[in-house]
């Protein structure tokens, strides 16, 4: 740039003297000013004239003025260029800042939208959970309950439209049987079928007095629960209580046994002389089990406590007389510690129960894909004597128990008015849906077991130990 200025200035000063040379020098003159010096060689002359004619001086001044104007213009343009560059940089930063802020605002809006979606999904999950709980207690079929056969002269239901569908009619036996078959259930299809059930109001006969203890037919009626005791502390939220139907010395059949099942080390077995002592809460015997118990699947039979060892599929027989483990055996392939529990949870993978035919285990395996398995066990050495696979998923029911070689399942553990919704007969290897009303008075039933000597169901319902009288129909 400065080279062009000097060249142009030289041309101005030299005019047509192409061979003349010129120089330009800039120096600081002080007081904030810059001094410019131009040196121009004249044409070759003998000597430098002492005086310059006035026209030449005027021409030189004119040319110097033009040069100063050009320099000022150039300097001003450079400063303006720098200012423009600075202004452009600042403008670029502002544009970048605005872009970043815009992207941040967009991200905030996207985050708020995702938060709303998560909240909606959580709300939908809660609705689906409640709907699933409701479906578990909905009946699979809308049909009249099974007829209650007349078992003795003391029970004669009054005639009327409310009871007419419960009384069998002569000459209509085949029709009664077919009416108990759910048209939605494919009996000829051996494939896996899922059951759901919830409560419907079903008219039932007024069965007063003692339950029928003769015969071993199907379960047709369960009485209102009778409360015997409420557990004292939080450890009694759920548990198991029972009486031995075939008790041995030194304990009588009236002896009541109880285990609070809340906690990681469940080992205390409390004994009460009878129901009155249980109600009063004064145990006469406290035993400490040598190995910790899992969940509420224990049962009492022939002087021994049968239970599942914690964190394993090992079954133990604890002899009450010697107060020691008398037998142990793994239940083949059985799930444990939350693999295949009942719908209420509680690590109820293996449920030991008894009936008129002996000792049973209700459980599931990976091979069965969660369907309920039933195994009959030798009460002495816990060896499996026989196994049956049902077509109802274990996690879809709240509890199960055995009566006369038949397994029954309870639809819901929280609904106050639910049903016993499924029965599987090990004698025929056939299952079917049923609808026998059952009440969870305290809405958290964690254990249901059968006592064949008393013909009662024992249950643990949200701190309360209750029992139910039952009635069985005559075998056909």
From TrEMBL:
It is found in: Cell projection, Cilium; Cytoplasmic vesicle; Golgi apparatus; Mitochondrion inner membrane. The keyword Secreted applies. Keywords: Calcium, Cell projection, Cilium, Coiled coil, Cytoplasmic vesicle, Disulfide bond, Endoplasmic reticulum, Extracellular matrix, Golgi apparatus, Lipoprotein, Membrane, Metal-binding, Mitochondrion, Mitochondrion inner membrane, Mitochondrion outer membrane, Palmitate, Secreted, Signal. GO terms for biological process: osteoblast differentiation; signal transduction. Residues 127-185 are annotated as: Disordered. It comes from Cyprinus carpio (Common carp). Residues 127-136 have a biased composition (Basic and acidic residues). It comes from the Eukaryota. GO terms for molecular function: metal ion binding. Residues 215-474 form the Olfactomedin-like domain. SMART domains: OLF. One of its GO terms (cellular component) is cilium. This is Myocilin. The gene is myoc. Residues 1-18 form the signal peptide.
């Amino acid at each position: 740039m400065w080279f062009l200025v000097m060249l142009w200035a030289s041309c101005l000063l030299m005019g047509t003297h192409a061979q003349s040379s010129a120089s330009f020098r800039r120096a600081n003159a002080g007081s904030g000013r810059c001094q410019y010096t131009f040196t121009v060689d004249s044409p070759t002359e003998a000597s430098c004239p002492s005086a310059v004619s006035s026209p030449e001086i005027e021409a030189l001044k004119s040319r110097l003025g033009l040069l100063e104007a050009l320099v000022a213009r150039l300097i001003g343009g450079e400063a303006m260029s720098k200012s423009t560059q600075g202004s452009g940089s600042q403008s670029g930063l502002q544009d970048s800042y605005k872009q970043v802020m815009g992207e941040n605002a967009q991200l905030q809006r996207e985050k708020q939208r995702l938060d709303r979606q998560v909240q909606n999904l959580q709300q939908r999950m809660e609705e689906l959970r409640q709907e699933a709980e409701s479906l578990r207690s909905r009946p699979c079929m809308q049909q009249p309950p099974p007829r209650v056969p007349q078992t003795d002269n003391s029970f004669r239901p009054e005639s009327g439209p409310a009871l007419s569908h419960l009384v069998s009619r002569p000459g209509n036996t085949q029709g009664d049987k077919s009416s108990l078959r759910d048209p939605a259930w494919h009996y000829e299809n051996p494939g896996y079928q899922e059951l759901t059930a919830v409560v419907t109001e079903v008219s039932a006969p007024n069965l007063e007095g003692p339950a029928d203890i003769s015969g071993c037919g199907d379960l047709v009626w369960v009485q209102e629960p009778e409360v015997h005791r409420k557990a004292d502390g939080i450890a009694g939220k759920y548990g198991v209580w029972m009486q031995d139907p075939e008790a041995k010395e030194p304990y009588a059949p009236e002896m009541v046994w109880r285990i609070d099942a809340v906690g990681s080390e469940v080992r205390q077995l409390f004994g009460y002389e009878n129901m009155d002592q249980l109600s009063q809460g004064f145990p006469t015997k406290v035993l400490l089990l040598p190995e910790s118990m899992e969940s509420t699947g224990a049962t009492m039979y022939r002087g021994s406590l049968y239970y599942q060892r914690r964190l394993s599929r090992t079954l133990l027989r604890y002899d009450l007389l010697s107060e020691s483990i008398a037998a142990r055996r793994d239940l083949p392939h059985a799930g444990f510690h939350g693999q295949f529990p009942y719908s209420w949870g509680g690590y109820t993978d293996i449920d030991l129960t008894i009936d008129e035919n002996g000792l049973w285990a209700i459980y599931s395996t990976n091979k069965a894909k969660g369907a309920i398995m039933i195994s009959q066990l030798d009460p002495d050495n816990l060896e499996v004597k026989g196994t049956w696979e049902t077509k109802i998923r274990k996690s879809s029911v709240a509890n199960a128990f055995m009566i006369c070689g038949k397994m029954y399942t309870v639809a819901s553990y929280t609904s106050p008015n639910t049903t016993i919704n499924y029965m599987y007969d090990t004698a025929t290897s056939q299952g079917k849906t049923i609808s026998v009303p059952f009440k969870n008075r305290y809405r958290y039933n964690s254990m249901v077991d059968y006592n064949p000597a008393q013909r009662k169901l024992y249950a643990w319902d949200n701190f309360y130990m209750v029992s139910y009288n039952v009635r069985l129909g005559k075998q056909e």
